[in-house]
Amino acid sequence: MKRFSPALLALSLLAAPVLHSCVTAKRYDDLSARQRADAEGKAAAERQLRNATTELQKASDELAQLRLSQKRLVVDSTETGNAYRKTRMLYNELNNSYDKLLKNSDRELANKSSDYNKVARDLARREAELGELETTLQKSKAANDRLAADLQTREARLTELTKALADKDQAVADLKARVSKALLSFNSSDLQVKLKDGKVYVSLSEQLLFKSGSTKVDPKGQEALKKLAAVLQEQKDVNVVVEGHTDNVPILRGTAGMTDNWDLSALRATEIARLLTTAGVSPERVTASGRGQYVPVAANDTPQNKAMNRRTEIILTPKLNELFQILDSNSSTPAAPVAPAAPGK
């Protein structure tokens, strides 16, 4: 599109009336149209100019921002490069340190692995020992339980035995008191009642019972035996042993039915046993025995000591059936097994 200067445009406007008569209306219209077109083109050009100026200013501003950003980027790039180089150096140092640590770690790991294997073997051994010990403890506990039960049973039986012994001792003491009371009227030199080894010993002298060398009991001796028999009839749980004793003086030759003091002591014991049973004591409770001169109570060196040895002892023993039953039950109880010893290290 052609552009017209303002002076030319003004001249044409001033000359328009003059030319009006020379040109045709069509020509005029064409010029008017062209003038309008030129005006519109000018306006459009001015608008484009303004837009271009505005765009140019924006581009200039953006260029200034870009240059500022470039400067910042250059600075940042420089700083980043420096930081990168420092980081690279640190990385290399760290990498070298890591390699050294890795080598040291490998050695330490090998050492630790060896130590671990040793510890593992020791632990396995100790676990095995612990298992054996636990088994032993379980066996020991079972054995201890059995032992405790057996001990409890034995304690119960011991209590029974202690009571039975106490009852027996009391029975013996009561028996001695009864016998002593029954024979209280006899001289202590001729008749003695004493306790010995849990038994009651009634010791009767020869002077009370027999004449020298005789096996027949004198009336006074028979009286003592009857009183003793009366007590024994009330004490039915008492066994009776009659022992005849002599001194060491041989019997006279020709004594009827006797060879020596043994025969004399046996016949005298038998005679006394017969008198006791005749007085009411059950024969199955009575035992007669002759001890001769072989169990003296004193040396046969004086007439007084010989007189002491010439005696008859009636030994009274309470029947201990209950006590024997307790003892038998204890002896028949199996012993508790001994717990096995702990395994050696």
Strand and helix map with partners:
Blueprint: H1 6-14, H2 16-20, H3 25-182, E1 191-196, E2 199-205, H4 206-209, H5 219-234, E3 238-245, H6 261-278, E4 286-292, H7 303-309, E5 311-318, H8 321-332
Parallel strand pairs: 3-4
Antiparallel strand pairs: 1-2, 2-5, 3-5
Helix pairs in contact: 3-8, 5-6
Report on this model:
The chain has 345 residues and is an alpha+beta fold. The chain has a domain at 183-330: OmpA-like domain (60s Ribosomal Protein L30, Chain: A, 2-Layer Sandwich). The protein contains eight helices and five strands; from the N terminus they run H-H-H-E-E-H-H-E-H-E-H-E-H. It has helices at 6-14, 16-20, 25-182, 206-209, 219-234, 261-278, 303-309, 321-332; strands at 191-196, 199-205, 238-245, 286-292, 311-318. It has a five-stranded mixed β-sheet. The protein is rod-shaped. The chain starts with 5 loop residues before the first helix and ends in a 13-residue tail after the last helix.
Features:
single chain, 5-stranded mixed sheet, 8 helices, 5 strands, 66% helix
Characterize the main sheet: 5 strands, mixed
In sequence order, what are the helices and strands, one letter per element? Answer: HHHEEHHEHEHEH
Structural class: alpha+beta
Q: What is the CATH homologous superfamily assignment of the domain at 183-330?
A: OmpA-like domain
Given as residue ranges, the uncertain stretches (5+ residues, pLDDT < 50) are: 338-345
| Alpha carbon gap, first and last residue | 121 Å
Coarse shape: rod-shaped
Percentage beta strand: 5-15%
Q: What's the total number of strands?
A: 5
Helix amount: 55-70%
Rg over CA atoms: 74 Å
Mean pLDDT: 84
Number of helices: 8
Q: Which architecture of the domain at 183-330 does the CATH hierarchy give at level 2? A: 2-Layer Sandwich
